[in-house]
């Protein structure tokens, strides 16, 4: 005797299951799958991407310059179209279901392709003297000291361009780039597992710095052993600068006295200028303080130590339009534009 198996009707919100009872035949389900994105609009994708990124309907509405009910309605229509719950509300908190996380990835890919298409078509207007386009650049904290000047120099080369600049830790910048939230990025050389293309365009010198009145500030050819008893201010664990300096200290077999760990270049510079210790920083971070005579670069043997500045972009999509033009500009002119005093 055959037993009838009835499909469960309860909801699995975490997986983004449909709230409806799936009783259709495989043929009908297949037909529905083919039609689920038939009425999808770019407006729905953009509003959903804003809510999913902000995890807030109100902030998404403010970002997109629309009302909150309009955002809610568009997201609900998208969920109804897909037959899946993408966003889960618990009180005032909004989270993504598993289906929502996947939809967010796909939405970013689609919107990125739309941007590429807009730029490619926009290139046909170049002959009339117009360039335009939006460039979303991501940079690590040490690069934000020269990024605005680099963008302004590019704007003279590409009239009408608009910019969006994101500054964050290297891991976050790489994740945003791979997730189609950024067009291009500037950082040090990425780890081998990162699926991005890296092209070197300039050097990033690193130096040991101290307060301007430090006893070592006027000495020349300082040996590393002279730092053995100096109080050191380190960047937080995990930062590229910290990893680089740890490697240098190991190469010198030099134990140092770490008096504090601070997050961010600005905080460290203030501590060094206050005489709380010496530190190891990218030269790009202290140009203003050197000019003002508030910091001194210690003249260590075999210093400065160099890292590379790289322009990063995704391997799965070719750069075109304003993004391609920015890449060419940085590779040709970037070295001169980001050069700094030591």
Structure description:
By secondary structure, the protein is an alpha/beta fold. It has eleven helices and eleven strands. β3, α6 and β4 form a beta-alpha-beta unit.
| Low-confidence runs of at least 5 consecutive residues | 1-14, 18-33
- Helices, by number, come to 11
The fraction of residues in strands falls at: 15-25%
Q: What is the number of beta strands?
A: 11
Termini, distance in Å? Answer: 87 Å
Helix content: 25-40%
Average pLDDT over all residues: 84
Provide the gyration radius in Å.
26 Å
The dominant shape is elongated
Order of helices and strands: HHHHEEHEHEHEEEHEHEHEEH
Supply the helix-strand structural class.
alpha/beta
- Sketch the major β-sheet: 9 strands, mixed
In short:
The chain has 342 residues and is α/β, with parallel strands linked by helices. It is built from 11 helices and 11 strands.
Question: What is the fold's blueprint, element by element?
Answer:
Layout: H1 26-35, H2 42-54, H3 57-64, H4 68-82, E1 87-90, E2 93-96, H5 98-122, E3 134-139, H6 147-157, E4 162-167, H7 170-178, E5 184-187, E6 196-211, E7 231-235, H8 240-252, E8 257-262, H9 265-273, E9 278-282, H10 287-291, E10 295-297, E11 305-314, H11 321-337
Helix pairs in contact: 2-3, 2-4, 2-5, 3-4, 6-11
Quickly list its features.
alpha/beta; 11 helices; 342 residues; 39% helix
């Amino acid at each position: 005797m055959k037993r009838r198996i009835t499909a469960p009707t309860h909801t699995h919100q975490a997986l983004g299951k449909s709230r409806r009872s799936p009783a259709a035949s495989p043929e009908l389900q297949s037909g529905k799958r083919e039609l689920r994105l038939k009425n999808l609009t770019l407006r729905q994708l953009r509003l959903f991407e804003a809510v999913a990124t902000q995890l807030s309907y109100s902030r998404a509405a403010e970002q997109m310059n629309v009302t909150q009910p309009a955002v809610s309605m568009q997201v609900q229509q998208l969920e109804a179209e897909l037959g899946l719950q993408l966003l889960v509300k618990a009180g005032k908190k909004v989270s993504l279901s598993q289906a929502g996380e996947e939809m967010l990835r796909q939405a970013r890919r689609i919107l990125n392709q739309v941007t590429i298409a807009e730029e490619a078509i926009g290139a046909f207007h170049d002959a009339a003297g117009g360039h335009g386009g939006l460039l979303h650049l991501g940079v690590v904290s040490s690069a934000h000291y020269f990024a605005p000047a680099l963008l302004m120099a590019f704007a003279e080369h590409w009239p009408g361009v608009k910019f969006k600049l994101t500054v964050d830790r290297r891991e976050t910048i790489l994740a945003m780039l791979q997730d189609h939230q950024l067009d291009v990025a500037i950082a040090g050389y990425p780890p081998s597992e990162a699926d991005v293309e890296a092209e070197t365009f300039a050097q990033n010198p690193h130096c040991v710095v101290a307060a301007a009145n430090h006893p070592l500030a006027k000495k020349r050819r300082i040996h590393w052993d002279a730092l053995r008893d100096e109080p050191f201010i380190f960047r937080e664990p995990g930062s590229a600068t910290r990893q680089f300096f740890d490697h240098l200290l190991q190469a010198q077999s030099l134990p140092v006295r770490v008096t504090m760990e601070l997050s961010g270049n600005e905080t460290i510079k203030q501590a060094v200028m206050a005489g709380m210790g010496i530190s190891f920083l990218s030269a790009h971070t202290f140009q203003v303080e050197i000019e003002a005579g508030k910091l001194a670069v210690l003249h260590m043997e075999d210093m400065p130590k160099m890292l590379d500045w790289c322009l990063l972009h995704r391997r799965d999509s070719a750069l075109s339009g304003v993004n391609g033009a920015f890449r060419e500009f940085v590779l040709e002119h970037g070295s001169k534009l980001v050069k700094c005093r030591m």
